[in-house]
Amino acid sequence: MLALALALALCALVASWDYSGGFGGFDFYGQASVAQLADSPKFGNIYSEPGRIAIGEQLTLDAKAPGADPRLSQLAAAHGAPLNTVTPFCFTAFRLFDVADYGTAWNRYRMLLLLSMVVGILIFTRRLGYSFTGGLIAVALFSSQMFGPMGSLLRTGNVGSLQLGALGLVLLLGGSRAGPARQISMGALLGFAVLFKPTVAPIVVLLVVDRIAARDTRRLRLELTGAAAAGVFGVMASGVALRSLQPWKDWMAFLSQFLEHPPPATHGNYALSQLLGGGLAPVLALVTLGVAVGSIWKARRAGGRSSDARLVALGLGVALISGPLVWLHYYVLAVPLALVAMAPAKSDAAWTIARTVVAFACVVALALRPIIVVFQVNEPTTFAWIASLSGLVLFATVAAEPFVIGRKVRSADSAAVPKSREELAPG
Hints:
Elements: H1 2-21, H2 26-37, H3 49-63, H4 70-79, H5 88-94, H6 102-127, H7 132-142, H8 148-156, H9 160-173, H10 180-196, H11 201-213, H12 217-241, H13 246-258, H14 272-275, H15 281-301, H16 308-322, H17 335-341, H18 349-367, H19 369-375, H20 380-416, H21 421-424
Helix pairs in contact: 1-6, 1-7, 2-5, 3-4, 5-12, 6-7, 6-9, 9-10, 10-12, 11-15, 11-16, 15-16, 15-20, 16-17, 16-20, 17-18, 17-20, 18-20
């Protein structure tokens, strides 16, 4: 079985590598190319309309230079004036990829995407009690371009699998038995992940709630120390790389305006708040955070404690459900939710089977291709509803577990309590 799982995983990775090679990496090009120009005073505010237009003109000129990769002309034309939504720290990280040799840069980045996906999945499955064979099967399932979000990620070259890999390393560093150095490192890596892309910020909130619920103040202090240190270092490092801290102010000003009127579902935005009419992102954030916090406290009251893997999954669920901007490739971050929902358990077989079936159905729905083939559906809004509801069901399944298990424990305890004096009498 192990050999078969390994073969499936390798086949999926090879197929994904070949598949991504047929695309230019629209998002990767936008982030890596702008990153090379972001420190130039010539472009001023790279998040402003004039700055974006000036950068677009420069990219068009660079694409026409002698010896330039032929894909650059197509990518520059497709971008026009690049819509820069990522943080200055993200731009700083992407300066590692030199688009002057675009073929090499794109190949290295594709390799990093797949490696991050594999690392993230294997660490999550290990922490959740899967066998190594089960972990390899998960790699085959979620790293394949047949999984809709992963296919989108491979086409665009966005950063979802990088985030998943980083969160896997966060779990690897953490744990209640980890020493102070590892707990500080865990907090630092999580802090860098938030600076890189703030969609993972709800995880920080849920980790804090869990530590408070467990009265684990020492661990909380160490992790927050690491996160704070990473935050300061990351901001300063991006200030050095971009020659100013002004881009952080420019980014926050741009983002507040941009998210007032995010793209609609017809343009590929799968955000549930947009499907419900717009403007509901803050409400959804409060509701989902409240549900996640309630689930954490319920687990604690039942005598247990949520694993860090479950907390990370719940935090990602909050981000996916409440985010005002959610492209299809964002749903790579639903993989931890699916893994938690399908995780093996030694007790309560009925609930384990039920949540596994529900989670697998959601994974099939997120693949989208079966929906397209069977129902002949090709409407962006329909895809947005499918993805949003799948994410919502996965989140609800993971959040519900302490309540389901707690109810059964109470029922068992009640059955064990004598109900009459006769039951107390010796036989």
